[in-house]
Specification:
It comes from Effrenium voratum. Keywords: Aminopeptidase, Hydrolase, Metal-binding, Metalloprotease, Protease, Zinc. Pfam families: DUF3458, DUF3458_C, Peptidase_M1, Peptidase_M1_N. Belongs to the peptidase M1 family. This protein has 1519 residues and is α+β, with helices and mostly antiparallel strands. Helices cover 42% and strands 15% of the residues. It is built from 52 helices and 43 strands. Strand 1 and strand 2 form a beta hairpin. Helix 14 runs antiparallel to helix 15 and helix 28 crosses helix 32. It binds zinc ion (ZN). The site of zinc ion (ZN) has 6 residues, from helix 46.
């Protein structure tokens, strides 16, 4: 049988193939097994298979493609190559059985080894290997090479153990394979490099100029992978290359490559490219040198310098040539002139060796090297970095960078022309320092130089350094006066103070001459130096050493009696105002300073005085102290007030310490304690340091008090008789023991009249002896306590007993009595203090048989506590009744009997509140950060509709520990442009299945997963279209929320799963069209999870079903009837507690409200609930906007990287903006929670029902909603205060953004950079506010109504909003568009005249819109100016609120006014436009406005201006 069969097989390959199939699987039957073996044996000789190329081969000659990534590898390579390199042909097996059989007959499977052989092969059609050949074909995109790396990365991806043995072998071979095409000029001719031949770099060092590095790469000095290849890498490809060490070059590697290029090249070789690459090498060295981190000398740079120096000493060209032989730089300098091609922008007139005696031809060459000779720019140089795309300013700076490098680093001789006006080369090509200095205007070089941010430090140092040379200064002295103004500032900020000390007479005279030459009028007497000090202060100089030198100079003059030492009173007064502390902006007064305090951090921080020795002692202890003493600064604190403040700060610090201690988890000794320092709010100290120092600090204060005399001693009176003395609580010894024993409480406060210095002999063995003050304090303090404070000197048993009894009795009577010594009850200010509240030791009371605390006492204490809470001013926000608070206070008092009753440190609270406010504003920053991760350079104008819409979404989310499955079903509707496939966004998703219209799609055929897209082919879509009307696309993915640390998408946060989808988080959850204009109804969101771990399952909309599942799991299903973009989707699952309430809408619908948080936070949620209810009511009343669903949920999450997020009906908040309890939250906390709850709720209409078409329109929802929350807060609290707060925010955060380097309009045009939060949010809200100012509140409301009527349920643009405002009011608002398209803060100048005859007041308004970094335009803005006019004599309002509209650059408005005198204008009331107003108010005007203006904002503003003016006037001393 076998014979016949084999014959048949040999005759017809088809039979052979079928026979193979028939033989099938191995079987157990012994007969058939033997028969099968026999057949197989014969078959191996005769059978043949068809290869992929269609040829017939024996099984032993084929390679099976196999499956998985190596199959993809086999598909990537040409069959012929495999054939040649492995000696086998590729073949596809029909199924697993056939594959096994073929292997049995000698076939092999394509493996990593074969892959390596193919890649190593050179020959045939691939003389330099496959990679080189592929690269030659694919130079522009480099995609196939990148695909190869990606595939290799995929094959060798970490963690794939199944094929580890094979792939590690491949990995070992990679360095010896020619896999890496290098960047080069002649692309196709270059073979591919191997890694073992030297380092290969992927990309370039990001800190340095790109072009130069690429030039180094092209010349071969740096082995760079072409950018076309590196840009095509996916994460696995990049990972693979990184593990092979193919990464961007380090600084050291760059420097090495550049130096080698300069020093090792032979002269004469390839002259033109040589010059080019030498320049590139120099430029790289220059950039490295100019970078501030360069601390060490770049190795080898000395050799370059040496080469240059030696060159200067050569006598002839021959000599120079000999010297430079073998050195690349020499080759550059000495190459024939026509072969040198320095970039045209390097024409820098600094002259290397300009004054040296060189042969003229050598000079010419050197000048050529420096770009001094006239150049004929050749066309092929136009691609040099500076040739295009940079403005004149950048070119000048670039030239200055070169100059600094040559002169400062390489030691070239700077040029000091005798007459700077005469240039040798044509001026337009030449950069000249002298010329630049002479120019003026906002972009002058000196302005840039003074703004150190824009200029590299090295260049700045160089420019300043040049001023030290007398020749340079002589030249500079000839410059026009306006240039020297800037120069003088520069000079005073640095140079002058670095000059040698005064003292040596000759030098003093020299210095004076230099000063005069520069136009500075500072003289070298005390008066002159005092003027210099003032100039430093005015110039905002922040360097203490500069001040110190001037102080020292003055002291020297004063002490030695040198010229001008006897100065007048006014000079002395000026000097006293020039005490400088780097930590404080304003100059210090002598009263605010002290020379010295003991080295004790607690003390220093508790003392509100500036300790000058900390700043200045290092410059000369004795001399500095003497100088400051002359200015009235005391050696140590010397006023009672100061000591009392220190003591009270110390008490606060101890209170804060206690809180931090009790709050600390684990080891409280590691806690950080906030200190009430004025200079550094938020300054902290570790608990152990605090405990080490606090007692010494307290003793220092008491000792200081004891040294006071006379009036000051009298002023300590507040201490007596009701003030308390601080003594440590009982403990084993150290303060640490005390803190441990009393849970962070440190001191007991004993009333003065209840304390005693020592005990009489009859109490010597009693507990009372432990409380004698002499046991705590050194004997020298006895006079202070006894004589000054009135502490009883000695106490005996009878007196003690009597005193205590009296106190208890008086206490019960409510504090009418007044003790004066002894132990009676004391009530100095009329308020009763309770038994033991002052901290008299209970042990003491018990020991003496007195009553201890009674129930009535406790109740009274609680009342006191309640009153104290009320005094802190938060009754208005309190959600609990007095009874609750009373109970709480009683509980609190009992549990912490030893705590202080002092109020918390308000400074610290204010700081925390400010932080929270910042967090709230950081929402946009976070959204913008997501924007930033999108590919660079997306333009607003390039918006395109998607090729498909998603009309409905149904999700099933199954949460398991460590993995979550998301199944999504999307109903698609193809858009007009449906010729394209559908590209869904997805990041870090594991795709398991794609089903379209019921049919499972095939990877690589019907769909492709590339990078961060899942692309469904048009063919598949068309096919689905043909079958069904509704196309349903189903995908299944797996995600890992537990590993998601970006907090974008679904993530796990300690106790719960939580989502954040704005701006682009949904793509990290499932495949979707993640863009805001795709709005769909999420009709079903089913969440399944373990019931114990996640009893609460939440999503948007209404809950339509819940139920149990096997294995302790359960589910909840949600449905949201409103279409929404996916960034508003939310999911929360976890173990949460909640509070519930309801809200009845204006139309009578009942809404269930629920606020969730971790269980321990449940008691802190009521304020959030009340705020929500207020917001819902307010929006109905003000805008007629009702809530639209039956449920509204808020969840407070600890790890939430935004302030809060407005997901439809399921808001997620950071706990800091949700939780508030009376004993921990401040008024600011309460207000900011209310504001943010309002903000997110208001988004339901402005943001959710009507959303943004694309992220460039972010301000459409955010500006509008911020405006709405501002209005809400204004109506809930004080409108004026809110307005002032908002304007201050705008001025301090947004105005700087507007004039900064990243300025953009509120609606940005492109997304290359980060969106600026204060602009999009804050200025966006101002723009909305201007609509209201222009249209009136009713007109604005009409516009809002029309906006919702037109656009409800859609995604729109800022233009649509403007159109609604315009159409509803019949106004032309087209010019208003400029507020959306132009950045910058307009300057509004106002001037006025008064015609008493006619009674006409004329106001001329003139605006200028500054040019901004983004060049968005400077056309006149429409500016609404709200104003009123006040009578100059009486302050009465003559013209009430009027809104003028400035549309042109300048316009005069006439207002009829009755009156005798020119009225006083109150301009820009309520800050009616985000502009900078300039009007020349007199002090009197301002005072009048501050007193009488009807506009609260302008009253505040006038006070501010008045104050600022006063300070500035005081400082305006001429220099
Ligand atoms: Zn918002």
């Amino acid at each position: 049988m076998c014979e016949a069969f084999a014959g048949a097989c040999a005759a017809a390959p088809e039979i052979s193939r079928r026979a193979l199939a028939l033989l099938g699987e191995p079987v157990a039957d012994p007969f058939w097994r033997v028969a099968r073996e026999g057949v197989l044996e014969r078959l191996s000789d005769v059978s043949c298979v068809q290869t992929s190329a269609g040829q017939l081969r024996k099984p032993g000659e084929v390679l099976l493609r196999g499956s998985g990534p190596l199959r993809r590898a086999s598909e990537l390579l040409p069959g012929e190559l495999v054939n040649l390199s492995c000696g086998r042909s590729l073949c596809d097996a029909g199924d697993a059985g056939e594959e096994r059989l073929l292997r049995r007959l000698g076939a092999e499977t394509f493996s990593a080894r074969h892959f390596a052989q193919c890649l190593a092969y050179q020959g045939g059609a691939w003389p330099r290997g496959w990679v080189a050949a592929t690269w030659a074909e694919d130079v522009p995109s480099g995609r196939r090479i990148a695909a190869l790396y990606n595939l290799l990365g995929f094959i060798m991806r970490p963690g794939d153990e199944s094929s580890e043995a094979q792939t590690s072998e491949l990995l070992l071979q990679l360095p010896s394979l020619p896999l890496f095409p290098l960047l080069s000029k002649g692309q196709s001719e270059r073979p591919c490099a191997k890694l073992e031949e030297g380092p290969i770099f992927l990309g370039i060092c990001s800190a340095l100029t790109e072009t130069w590095q690429l030039a180094l790469g092209e010349s071969g000095a740096l082995r760079l992978l072409p950018p076309a290849v590196s840009s095509g890498l996916d994460s696995l490809g990049a990972q693979l290359l990184a593990s092979l060490g193919v990464e961007a070059p380090s600084r050291a590697q760059l420097a090495e490559a550049a130096l080698q290029r300069l020093l090792r090249l032979q002269p004469g070789a390839e002259a033109a490219p040589l010059a080019f690459s030498c320049w590139a090498a120099l430029a790289v060295l220059r950039d490295l040198w100019a970078e501030p981190e360069t601390e060490k000398e770049i190795r080898g740079l000395a050799a370059v310098r040496q080469a240059l120096v030696s060159l200067g000493s050569c006598g002839s060209l021959e000599e120079a040539k000999k010297l430079m032989a073998g050195q690349g730089l020499g080759a550059l300098l000495l190459a024939p002139a026509e072969k040198l091609q320095p970039p045209p922008t390097l024409r820098c007139p600094s002259v290397l060796g300009h004054l040296r005696q060189l042969p003229s031809d050598l000079v010419e060459r050197i000048e050529a090297f420096l770009g001094l000779s006239a150049a004929r720019p050749s066309p092929n140089l136009q691609t040099w970095p500076l040739a295009e795309g940079q403005d004149g300013q950048q070119r000048k700076l670039e030239a200055l960078r070169w100059e600094a490098f040559f002169v400062d680093c390489l030691g070239a001789q700077p040029r000091r022309p005798a007459d700077w006006r005469q240039e040798r080369a044509s001026p337009d090509l030449v950069f000249s320092l002298g010329q630049e200095l002479g120019s003026d205007g906002p972009r002058s070089l000196w302005v840039s130089l003074l703004d150190e941010k824009a200029v590299p430090d090295a260049v700045f140092r160089y420019a300043v350094g040049r001023l030290e040379h007398s020749a340079d200064r002589a030249w500079l002295a000839e410059l026009p006066a306006r240039a020297t103004l800037k120069l003088r500032e520069l000079f005073l900020n640095g140079l002058y103070l670095d000059l040698p000390q005064l003292g040596a007479a000759g030098r003093g005279a020299e210095l004076q001459k230099r000063l005069a030459a520069l136009g500075a009028r500072a003289r070298l007497d005390v008066e002159g130096l005092s003027a210099a000090l003032q100039a430093l202060l005015r110039g905002q100089c922040r360097s203490a050493s500069h001040f110190a030198r001037l102080y020292l100079n003055i002291d020297t003059l004063e002490t030695t009696g040198a010229a001008g030492a006897a100065h007048g009173e006014d000079v002395e007064a000026a000097l006293r105002e020039c005490i400088f502390d780097p930590a404080v902006k304003e100059p210090m007064r002598a009263d605010d300073c002290v020379w010295e305090l003991p080295k004790n951090e607690v003390l220093t921080k508790c003392c509100h005085l500036t300790v000058l020795s900390d700043i200045y002692a290092s410059f000369g202890d004795v001399q500095m102290k003497r100088y400051f003493e002359r200015r009235g600064v005391p050696g140590q604190p010397h006023t009672a007030e100061c000591y009392l403040r220190m003591r009270s700060n110390l008490m606060n610090a101890a209170e804060e310490f206690g809180k931090a201690w009790r709050r600390a988890e684990g080891n409280p000794e590691m806690a950080m304690v906030p200190l009430p320092s004025m200079a550094q709010p938020g300054g902290k100290i570790s608990a152990t340091d605090f405990l080490d120092q606090i007692w010494d600090a307290l003793i220092f204060i008491y000792k200081g008090m004891s040294t006071l005399e006379g009036q000051e001693r009298q002023a300590l009176r507040p201490f007596s008789p009701v003030e308390a003395i601080l003594v440590p609580l009982p403990g084993a010894g150290s303060m640490l023991e005390v803190a441990r024993f009393h849970d962070g409480a440190l001191f007991r406060r004993i009333s003065v009249c209840e304390s005693f210095w020592e005990v009489a002999p009859d109490l010597a063995d009693s507990v009372a002896a432990l409380w004698a003050l002499s046991g705590f304090f050194p004997p020298e303090l006895r006079p202070l306590f006894v004589e000054c404070f009135g502490v009883r000197e000695v106490v005996d048993a009878a007196a003690l007993r009597e005193g205590i009894q009296a106190r208890i009795n008086h206490g019960k009577r409510g504090g009418q009595s007044r003790g004066s010594g002894g132990f009676g009850f004391v009530a100095g200010d009329g308020r009763g203090r309770m038994v033991n509240e002052l901290g008299l030791p209970e042990e003491l009371l018990r020991a003496l048989g007195g009553d201890t605390v009674t129930e009535a006492d406790a109740l009274a204490a609680a009342e006191e506590a309640l009153a104290s809470l009320r005094r802190r001013g938060r009754g208005g926000h309190s959600g609990s009744s007095d009874d609750e608070a009373l109970a709480g206070a009683t509980r609190g008092r009992k549990s912490a009997a030893n705590r202080w009753s002092a109020p918390p440190a308000w400074g610290a609270c204010a700081f925390v509140a400010a932080q929270q406010r910042r967090r709230r504003h950081s929402t946009a920053a976070a959204a913008a950060a997501v924007e930033q991760s999108a590919p660079p350079e997306i333009f607003r104008k390039d918006y395109q509709e998607p090729s498909c819409w998603i009309r409905e979404a149904r999700l099933t989310v199954r949460i398991f520990e460590q993995r979550t499955e998301v199944r999504s079903r999307l109903r698609l509707e193809r858009a007009e442009r449906s010729g394209e496939g559908l590209a869904l966004d997805g990041e870090e998703l594991r795709l398991k299945r794609v089903v379209l219209a019921g049919l499972e799609l095939k990877d690589g055929e019907d769909y492709n997963v590339t990078g961060e897209k899942l692309v469904i082919s048009t063919v598949a879509l068309d096919a689905a279209d043909a079958v069904e009307e509704d196309i349903w696309l189903e995908t299944e993915v797996e995600i890992k929320p537990e590993e998601n640390t970006q907090l974008s998408g679904l993530y796990y946060s300690g106790s719960m799963y939580c989502s954040q989808m704005e701006a682009q988080g949904f793509r990290r959850f499932t495949y979707y069209l993640d863009r805001p204009d795709v709005m769909s109804k999420f009709t079903s969101v089913r969440i399944e999870a373990d019931e114990d771990r996640c009893p609460i399952l939440l999503s948007n909309g209404n809950r339509i079903a819940t139920g149990k599942l096997p294995e302790g799991r359960h589910f909840a299903e949600w449905s949201d009837p409103f279409a929404k973009p996916c960034y508003l989707f939310a999911l929360v699952a976890g173990d949460l507690a909640s509070i519930q309430d309801k809200f009845v809408t204006a139309s009578g619908r009942e809404v269930h409200l629920e606020v969730f948080a971790a269980r321990e936070d449940k008691d802190q949620l009521w304020h959030a609930m009340r705020s929500l209810q207020h917001a819902m009511r307010w929006d109905e009343e003000r805008f007629g906007l009702e809530y639209d669903l039956d449920i509204y949920n808020i969840v407070a999450v600890r790890d939430f990287n935004m302030g809060a997020m407005e997901n439809k009906s399921l808001n997620v908040f950071n706990t800091s903006l949700t939780l508030a309890r009376e004993d921990t939250a401040t008024d600011d906390d309460y207000e900011s929670i209310e504001g943010v709850i309002g903000h997110e709720y208001f988004h339901n209409w402005t943001g959710n029902r009507v959303t943004c078409r694309d992220w460039f329109q972010l301000t459409l929802k955010e500006g509008l909603t911020v405006y709405r929350d501002q209005e809400f807060s204004s109506d809930m609290g004080s409108r004026a205060r809110k307005r002032i707060e908002d304007v201050r925010f705008l001025r301090s955060y947004q105005f700087p953004e507007d004039s900064g380097p990243m300025a953009h309009p509120i609606r940005p045009e492109r997304c290359a950079a980060r969106f600026l939060a204060a602009t999009v949010y804050g200025k966006g809200a101002e723009v909305i506010r201007m609509y209201e100012t222009l249209l009136g509140r009713d007109g604005f409301r009409k516009g809002m109504d029309l906006y919702f009527q037109r656009h409800d349920g859609t995604a729109v643009t800022c233009d649509d909003f403007r159109a609604a405002m315009q159409d509803a009011n019949g106004r032309d608002l087209s010019q208003f568009e400029r507020w959306y398209s132009q950045a910058g803060t307009p300057v509004l100048k106002a001037a006025d005249t008064w015609d008493p005859e006619q009674g006409i007041y004329t106001l001329t308004l003139k605006q200028s819109v500054p040019a901004t970094a983004d060049d968005s335009g400077t056309l006149p803005m429409p500016i609404p100016v709200r104003l009123g006019l006040l009578d100059r004599a009486t302050g009465k309002e003559l013209v009430p609120d009027t809104v003028l509209e400035l549309l042109e650059e300048e316009h005069s408005f006439e207002l009829p006014v009755a009156g005798e005198e020119k009225p006083v204008p109150s301009l820009l009331r309520g800050f009616s436009a985000p502009v900078q107003l300039q009007y020349d108010y007199s002090d009197k005007d301002l005072a009048l406005l501050a007193a009488f203006d009807t506009d609260s904002f302008n009253r505040w503003e006038s006070m501010q201006r008045l104050g600022t003016k006063a300070v500035l006037d005081a400082l305006a001393v001429s220099c």
